[in-house]
Amino acid sequence: MIAIGEASRQSGVGIETIRYYEREGIVPKPARAANNRRLYTARDVGRLRLLKRCRALGFSLADAKTMLDLAEQGSDDCPAVKALAEGHIAEVRRKITELERLEAALQELTRNCASGNVSCPMLAELQDA
Amino acid sequence: MIAIGEASRQSGVGIETIRYYEREGIVPKPARAANNRRLYTARDVGRLRLLKRCRALGFSLADAKTMLDLAEQGSDDCPAVKALAEGHIAEVRRKITELERLEAALQELTRNCASGNVSCPMLAELQDA
DNA sequence: GCTTGCTCCTGTAGTGACTACAGGAAGTAT
DNA sequence: ATACTTCCTGTAGTCACTACAGGAGCAAGC
């Protein structure tokens, strides 16, 4: 049974974030010592680590919580995990496409910009439309 | 001089968003009619449209405001516009790279997931680390 | 025994860029 | 006169934290 600072170090999740997850019901409330301080088990740290990894993969906190629930069930519901992940992959791809579109538009707008220009073609273009 | 609803229609910026931009000092406070309703000029609508386009290109509201200020100056400071845009392009590319990294990681994690699996290799992988 | 410094506690407010009301007043159409 | 629409102000909610404020407890050194 370790304190929150140690749980934070072991999981890589910030102390304030751990307390936030608890408030939001993402992780169960941990045990408390006689002095009211939170006490974490290795399993609690495992939960935090799973959340950390899911967040690093870009899952929303809600989806990360779903992953955690799936892992907790012990049934290891592979199809559900796969569906969640594939939905997320689709979302990531959608974002990539959108950003590439933006990049192309920005490139096009700056194409005619030169340091010597008296009036800016990009501004002109932005003000038209 | 048009009302806020019409300015919203002409610019594509939502009514609540227009009032938000005013509150935040992004656009100047418009004229008011005797009945206290906001009155917008064609120039006001032009400002909103420029903001709209910058936001659609992914610029932060702060950067969009800078663009607007550059356009207002009339000097059409092309180098400044170009610098802003190129900084933003770099940011967009950074995001694309990051998302591609995420996608690859997700693909790798789901690669061994099959509907028939008893235990989920993705969950197992996520819980290791 | 006392001070210093660390960790912990609760509760609140701030971030970005809106969006969604609540509750009311004024204008327009029938 | 009534119904409908638009407008007003002000506040709270979104997401996922992050940053305090203000206090309590505990360990180590003097």
How is this structure best summarized?
The structure is a homodimer of 129-residue chains. Chain A is mainly alpha-helical and 129 residues long.
Describe the structure.
2 copies of one chain form a homodimer. Chain A has 129 residues and is mainly α. Helices cover 65% and strands 3% of the residues of chain A. The first copy, chain A, has 6 helices and 2 strands. In chain A, α1 packs across α3 (42-56) and α3 (42-56) packs across α4 (61-72). Chain A is elongated, with a radius of gyration of 23 Å. The relative contact order of chain A is 0.08. The interface between A and B is large, with 47 and 47 residues. Chain A binds a DNA duplex (30 and 30 nucleotides) through residues 3-5, 14-17, 19-20, 24, 35-38, 55, 60-62.
